[in-house]
């Protein structure tokens, strides 16, 4: 018997069975084609949504082939997009069929990587359907599932630590344990995706439900936890701050000490999640946390000016810290000495690695230039070459799209400098050939816009 033609599946503690999988690849390919049609055709696929949903939803539990289940889960958010044109009633009835089956599939899925894909699908469905799509019963079911997954996450970490003490422990065992850990962290990231979707759609109305899982997210953030636990915990707390604003204050005892400590964490992903959190704190709840920002900015500056901060692996964490300082200066200027910060801030530019945060940085950059801020323009406009160099690099690295709002503002500033004639030419002469080409391309691209 050729094992390649068979797949063995274990369900629960007792049931184990094998199935001859030769020929099932075609089924998986067909399912992937349906995903492609739904994703690409959108409203043009609307007439087929009911039939395809009735095919795909039962396949969430098709344990004979992993790729079939993955395709079934992946398809569902796209089908929601396709069906929207059919009206709210049609969409609601379709979701009433999908939701309980998707929740049950998440609950029963035995493979970690496929479980993660199903959770991602659920998060996307929630984002697309919005507040109230789960109702009380399905929300309760989901919280029970997340509670179970988080308990399993902690239990498996303990088990792995015990295995490391075993007399048979060696490098081969360690490699296997690290693989298991990666799989568990991937599932944890999808827990974060679901919480993100729920906060994004429900705002502070989600807090009473969130409280049912609070102890898990406090535990994840503990100083003794592995860094991926702390990273994803911070991401979850970031979502709470962003989507509940001042309401987040009542939770600060749970997240604030570790969020402050994490600004200078040795792990970049943890620093990034922490820095991002303080940026959105300033953006969405600035007055609530104003008293903290002076000390926080000092720590952010320390992280930004670390000798290793511009190494490739550290670029995104560093740029998130720069963005956080930007948002504090912009939204909470009375809490810090902006004029003391700005010379340092200007020296940190340009940024380009994190496009989402770059928008905030360059928007504030434009604010300051348009206000003729002397610390940015310099004495007798001496900083104009530096300003053009920063903007050129932003366009050259595609950190800013010339068609975006901030991109158009930057181009308008360049055009204003261009009207100075000799001064503009003098500034250009100080730029590299690549920077000059990027500026010219930006100006040409936006002609007439």
What can you tell me about this protein's structure?
The protein is an all-alpha fold. The chain contains 21 helices and two strands. The chain has helices spanning 24-41, 49-56, 66-83, 88-108, 112-129, 135-163, 171-202, 207-210, 214-220, 227-244, 252-261, 268-289, 293-304, 315-331, 338-348, 355-370, 374-377, 384-396, 405-418, 422-428, 433-445, and strands spanning 6-11, 15-20. A two-stranded antiparallel sheet has the order 1-2. A hairpin with a 3-residue loop joins strand 1 and strand 2 (15-20). The mean pLDDT is 93.
Structure keywords:
449 residues; two-stranded antiparallel ribbon; 69% helix
Q: β content, as a range?
A: under 5%
Principal-axis shape: globular
Compute the separation of the termini in Å: 68 Å
- One letter per element, helices H and strands E, the order comes to EEHHHHHHHHHHHHHHHHHHHHH
Helix content range: 55-70%
Oligomer: single chain
Give the overall pLDDT as a whole number: 93
Structure class: mainly alpha
How big is the Rg? 26 Å
Main sheet: strand order: 1-2
Runs in which pLDDT lies below 50 for 5 or more consecutive residues are none
Alpha plus pi helix count = 21
For the biggest sheet, the summary is:
2 strands, antiparallel
How many E-type strands? 2
